[in-house]
């Protein structure tokens, strides 16, 4: 800096060095452009069409704010034909910088038409990036932190399954030990505030807090990710646990200042949030549907969004009008509009079969997803069930139904069959009857078979991966009475199978295997591997029956001999009641993912009688029982799909004896180990007690002697006196004179 | 195991006791009567009538000659076992909650309730030669114990101490000579409901509303064993012979019973292994809470008295005697 020297003043003003002052008072111009955005990818227009384009843009930016006329600046240049054309971009000046940033957020990526997707950027950003250094500097490499293996529990040597138990305030993850007390894998008090939930493949344990939900997993049970959603009540995972949907009964409130929530102003008032599980990022928020009638209590049927099995789409139904299908992960509405269906009540996605999943994984391209929906009778149109493909939106099959009061859609878990349970009312509207409309989806033209069921259907369930199903029906007059649960209904359970028929042209049809009457059961629990089924009486106040059935039970020789040779074997001969049991106060039943064990539990959420749980094996033998006060929840940890190929599984089946002998050996040694440890403990306890007694007795004897009392007074262990009592009774007396 | 039902009381049972040989069983209930039974067949030997209030407690001496009972009519009565004559009636200001003969049969211990301004007392009376000579109506000793209300008490080994259980779940050793509290230990969270001595009185079992029963050494008041159940306990007894078991019983509070089923009320006698602290079995039958349990001195049978007004006498099956824990 040049010193100001009075004696040596420059002659001209230009000679004075102002650099120091300039440096100090330089204006920062950049700030002045914060309210300007650059819009790219505009169509090229000439003067004549310029006004039209500006009008159009004004419409698009309407939500952002008013733009004055002279705030559109579009540079033009002469093209090779000498015509003055725009260059395809434009500057727009907004009133405030906030409007500009909102414009970037809302309009960037807007599809104007097929070839023009608008790119909106801040003018200052353009400036900033144009001054980026040419030379590339590699960013410092972040040290790789290995994440824990989320599926480590599957590597358990004994192939045990895990379960989580929530009791009072404690959450415990336990190994199922069959007959022994379950072994604790991890436990933590106050882990959750309301309840717990596993992700569908078992990788994450979800805990609920007022702030949101947290996901835990890995061997050390560390917190993996948390999602901020105040007062979250319900969650739902996508089938491959890539996305998480959360719902809170309180609409999101975005704080005006110091916004540390992941939500922006556009999320205000929404109740449903979709998250990316892996990155923890917020993908989109949705409002809850408005209640059908003003003032009506809003009801939530969860899940609101149903995921297609490929995880590419999720959809929700607006009862009466439409199904909205969204794409993942872009979260955009498919084809930008909902599918309008008058009167639609409900829909279900068709599950994918194992083969389809494999094929999709191999090619990386999934075929269209399929969904089924139904509409009730509207005016002259009959009720109808429709199969629709997504995203193609072609209607694959429809079926008209008459006199329908309600429908329920049940997909078999491989997507082979769709059963529509139809409740009908008779003309006098007093009695109801049900029947089953079964769509055989894999066959050509999708034939529909009607299975008439005279009684009302209480429960229906497909055998997983099977061609059989079970229904529980009732004709009990109490069924329609106003107080359900007050009386235990008399029910009957029927099993059906798909009769393939003989030869090629005979029609396939579903036939009854057997109907079991005079039951009280009201729920069906199939083993996840099929074949075994538990029929249970839940929600009753007096009956807690559990019945374990096997549908492929090899009949005894004698029974098999009764089947006429050459004739079709009677499937009913293979249906066998394995055992029946009772679990007092049972409220929940769940099969473990391997289909070997069943857990029945009595939760304090429903009643306070003998809360606790019991573990049964598939044969209906009770293995372990524990009563826990304030017991709330027991959930098995789900397993992901097996990695073994079909051949490998077949191979194992074939050599089952070899494998099983190894495991039986392990079981034996484990049980003898446990009992030997237990025995040592017992021996020690007994010894301790004996020693203590010896000491105390000696002390007592010496005290007694000191007092001068006799020992005899208290130690007269005389032999018990046996008193034989002879009772003679005169039954009859007669006098006879002997001649 | 088929129980014998003794249906001699009209109201809920309060205490039952076997005599020393175990051939007789004495039961008292809220219906004012003391009953004596043959334990092997449940035949009633006789009754002791005279109380005009609920009888809370009964005890018999080691020679089965004298019987003492305490009642809510503010009296304790001494009876001749053989003929049912009332030999003496002591009058108090309040109800008598517990009576017990001392080990040498020369004294009896009584607990009177605190009520209407009268403090709780522990009183000791001499009954030496009570069968032949008139008994003094004046107590040998009156102890005014400090601290929370005493609910149960018993003589310790050699009558050296009195063990008292209090409402707050603590037990105290009281010197019968001086009336001083020698030591105290809070072993339960809630009120003590029963306290029964082992045969030689060197340890005892307590039951409490806190759903647990405990074995405690008399001299040190140290807890040796704990048996945790899922229901409030009203009584606990130690099996003197045959098996190292204890029997505990209770159930939901009587006032809540009408609202629940008998199963849920948990009105069962539970058998626990005394030393290993493991439950070995249960005996069901009562349809009200179990108020009192007594075990035959030979360990051949046990009896339970319930709020339902029945005494159930169970004679053990053969496999009970051959049962062995795997060790």
Automatic annotation (TrEMBL), chain A:
Keyword tRNA processing: no
Entry keywords, A to Z: Cytoplasm, Initiation factor, Protein biosynthesis, RNA-binding
Gene3D superfamilies, A to Z: 3.30.70.330, YVTN repeat-like/Quinoprotein amine dehydrogenase
Organism domain of life: Eukaryota
Example of a GO biological process term: formation of cytoplasmic translation initiation complex
Regions crossing the membrane: none
PROSITE patterns assigned: RRM
Gene Ontology cellular component list: eukaryotic 43S preinitiation complex; eukaryotic 48S preinitiation complex; eukaryotic translation initiation factor 3 complex
GO MF terms, alphabetically ordered: RNA binding; translation initiation factor activity; translation initiation factor binding
Signal peptide interval: none
Subcellular location: Cytoplasm
Annotated RRM domain residues: 35-125
Function: Component of the eukaryotic translation initiation factor 3 (eIF-3) complex, which is involved in protein synthesis and, together with other initiation factors, stimulates binding of mRNA and methionyl-tRNAi to the 40S ribosome. RNA-binding component of the eukaryotic translation initiation factor 3 (eIF-3) complex, which is involved in protein synthesis of a specialized repertoire of mRNAs and, together with other initiation factors, stimulates binding of mRNA and methionyl-tRNAi to the 40S ribosome. The eIF-3 complex specifically targets and initiates translation of a subset of mRNAs involved in cell proliferation.
Subunit note: Component of the eukaryotic translation initiation factor 3 (eIF-3) complex.
Similarity annotation: Belongs to the eIF-3 subunit B family.
HAMAP family registered for this protein in UniProt: eIF3b
Protein name: Eukaryotic translation initiation factor 3 subunit B
From TrEMBL, chain B:
Localization terms from the record: Cytoplasm
Residue ranges that the Swiss-Prot or TrEMBL entry lists as coiled coil: none
Keyword S-adenosyl-L-methionine: no
BP term (GO), one: formation of cytoplasmic translation initiation complex
Main subcellular location of this protein, as a coarse class: cytoplasm
Signal peptide residues on this chain, from the entry's feature table: none
Family note: Belongs to the WD repeat STRAP family.
Binding partners and assembly: Component of the eukaryotic translation initiation factor 3 (eIF-3) complex.
Name of the protein described by the UniProt record: Eukaryotic translation initiation factor 3 subunit I
